[in-house]
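Researcher: Following up on the earlier apo prediction. This time include the ligand. It's NAP, with the SMILES given after the sequence.
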Amino acid sequence: MGFNVRSRHGQTELAPEDRKPFKGRVVWFDGGRPKEDARPTSTRVASPPAFLRSPPSPPPPLQTPTNPPSQSSSLPHLLVFGGNGFVGTRVCQAALAAGLGVVSVSRSGRPRWAAAEAAGGAEGGDASRGPPSSPPSPLSRSPSPSSDPDAWIHDVEWVAADAFDVESWKEALEGAVGVVSTLGAFGSNAFMERICGDANVAVFEAAASAGVPRAAFVSVHDYGLPSFVLPGYFGGKKKAERALFRLFPETGVALRPGFVYGTRKVVLPSSSSSSSPPRTLSVPLGALGAPLDAALSLLPTESLSRSAPSLAGLALVPPVRVEALARAAVAAATDPEVEGGAMSAWQIKERYGG
Ligand SMILES: NC(=O)c1ccc[n+]([C@@H]2O[C@H](COP(=O)([O-])OP(=O)(O)OC[C@H]3O[C@@H](n4cnc5c(N)ncnc54)[C@H](OP(=O)(O)O)[C@@H]3O)[C@@H](O)[C@H]2O)c1
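Model: Understood. Below is the ligand-bound prediction.
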């Protein structure tokens, strides 16, 4: 598949890309091929992290080598499912920061807020600060790449495809050093079981068949809640974890955070009569998560939660900062030093920061 890594800080010189037709709908953030085609024939990408750089090959052993990647198209990258979501966007950013190429698969492709902003809908501001006092300057809608905090979006290849439609994205598995799945949803129990469970199972099965060496799954803390509490959500997560550990017995990592906090960008609904593009808003979930985190850090929450009844245990699981969870996910999906199995909220915080 065409692999679109364009780090501005990179060092490694790659041969020209060998673009093959791709069945999925690739959404190019900056409006399509013409801009991309203007790139120089060689593309600079960031140097991969030490553990990826050191062995000059051989590649990791394939688990079930039904579809070995071709040499020309198998540039190393991390494949992120749900890369346009709250956790997924941070996973993409963490992977880019680690020097990896990134391909994201989700139904809507690039983040909706980025699409809204690119269409001219301004950032409505930070919800903790209230509405902006004056209309944003036109300049703020098209900042230069160097000043744009969202410039990383250009370095991700956004594939718009449904996880269940494996044929439409399976080419993205070629050359993937690992897979991270953040797929999840809330809704009816049947729907949650389908997305939290079955969609992830489909991803792990395809990744294992393609010989992707590692997989990380953003699961959830096991609160030990009664089975009637959100059975679709928790049951789906357990189903996905079972598939992960069966298909990646040594290298599958289930990250189990409780509450995840950070700033979530959302697209505000626009009125049907309005012709202006939708506005976006940054919602600081950290306003709740950070103080709670600080308070809980004073308690031996891990041992208390093991002994506490489930509902009391709910309050004891420390919130995890979304950036730490993202770093954990990238390491879990790429670093051979990270052991397969479950990684608790406490382990995520201890190893990857607050
Ligand atoms: N946020 C928390 O506090 C928290 C706590 C514990 C665990 N988690 C888990 O962390 C994961 C990520 O959470 P989040 O808050 O980042 O959720 P989110 O923002 O809703 O992201 C979910 C992602 O899944 C994608 N998706 C859903 N159905 C899909 C399908 N059929 N095919 C392809 N992509 C699909 C969505 O993109 P499209 O809509 O474009 O398809 C989106 O990118 C979830 O599994 C959640 O259970 C979250």
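Model: The longest strand covers residues 101-106.
Researcher: Noted. I'll compare it with the apo version next.
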